[in-house]
Amino acid sequence: MQAREIQAVPPDPYRAWFECIAGCPGRYSLKEIIYACPKCGNLLEVRHDLDLLRKKSPAYWKDLFDRRLMGNHWPYGSSVWGKREMVCPDVEDANVVSTLEGGSNLFWAERLGKEIGLPELWVKLCGNSHTGSFKDLGMTVLVSMVRQMISEGVEIPAVACASTGDTSAALAAYCAVADIRAVVFLPRNKVSTAQLIQPIAHGAVTLAIDTDFDGCMELVREFCTRHNIYLANSMNSLRVEGQKTVSMELAQQFDWQVPDWVVIPGGNLGNVSALGKGFKLMHDLGMISKLPRIACAQAERANPLYLSYLKGFDEFEPVQAQPTLASAIQIGNPVSIEKAIRTLQYFGGVVEQASEDELADAVARADRTGLFNCPHTGVALAALFKLVDQGVIKAHDRVVVISTANGLKFPEFKIKYHEGNLGEVASRHPNTPIDVPADYDKVRDAVFRAIEESSCP
Predict the structure, then answer these.
(1) Is the sign of the CA dihedral 78, 79, 80, 86 positive or negative?
(2) What is the mean pLDDT of each run of 10 residues along the chain (457 residues)?
(3) Does 264 reside within a domain?
(4) Which residues, listed in sequence order, are joined to residue 328 by a DSSP beta bridge?
(5) For residue 262, what are the β-bridge partners?
(6) Coil, strand, or helix at residue 413?
(7) What's 374's domain CATH number?
(8) Which of 14, 9, 317, 270 is nearest to 142 (CA)?
(9) Is the dihedral of CA 18, 145, 404, 113 positive or negative?
(10) Suppose 204 and one of 64, 182, 265, 309 were both cysteines; which one would form an S-S bond, judging by CB atoms 3.0 to 4.6 Å apart?
């Protein structure tokens, strides 16, 4: 197939660098191995030269991004690299590590929306990706930058992360594509089998550690610091640059209009700040005319942001996260807490929580309408139901729920729900196979009996 011709961007020197989120003076190269401000210890974030970007009109950027989207001109078929000037201009084409990530379906959840009185309900299916989660969007940027650094002579023996499943899968896959060694720290017995097999299959050094995610995070940070291993967790803000393209892609899919609300599950909270960063950048460049409000949803058993929100964000205390069905967000001391709070305050955001019963029921209820959700998306859906009931989200609002991972990664969760074996969870929407002998009359009777029962109020 012949590649579509893409109009080249004139060779303006687009620039990006790291800066302290607290405003300390100093700029640091994206090719420098640095994660925190050397002056105050706060996280860094990637900044772009907006004056250079503003040399092109909003219409120019929108047209360019639209023509690149899902094409086959390397590397612009990736919805991340199709926006490279605003994501990571420092990586050469030859060093881009991509699986053509992004471009995921924006699903109109019409039936579910009608059930809850929200006609404009959409679900952004970020789990429809190479490794089955939104983590691919950030990992393509991070691993590409590592490959660029290695090509320039920087010695990086491996890339490592702590993970509750999805980050390790993405890191392992992208490092496998790039022929870079990956090391993953996983909390033992706290990730699904489907998530565990991904880094194993991709050849990553996989450690199952007898601790929780916060314990793994502490260990991997020490390990990376002592041995010059590159850290791939979301405290590395290169990840945020890729993940912020969810906002930009949403705007594209709505013909450069912006929803009223975006609802997203929150664990380590990098994705909250990523969403805000993408929307703010487009707004600053005049590509969109308004900003959405952001709702962050947390599991009740791992809810430090929610507890801080109840106190007006005046204080924050880490919690000891308890086991939750939403295992990927079982995080009591999120790395990106300051970025997330700042984002929510800027966007008039809210935080809601979901119990185990609420999140499991929300998954099953949504699945009945044609979705196939992970438990973390269930947290976001349960929070959405609450916010609609409370009148915070109005019937006329256009709402997008960010689905962070593919439901196929969590078969045990779904099987146990429908079998009624999720502990204290009440399975309100169970559906189990009907055992029937190979007899036509009995098969017919079983089918019509099931149809009749499902029709009863």
Answers:
(1) positive
(2) 40 83 94 93 94 97 95 93 96 96 97 97 97 96 97 96 90 98 92 87 95 91 93 90 97 97 94 96 98 98 97 96 92 92 97 97 97 97 98 98 95 94 91 95 95 74
(3) yes
(4) none
(5) 294, 400
(6) helix
(7) 3.40.50.1100
(8) 270
(9) positive
(10) 182
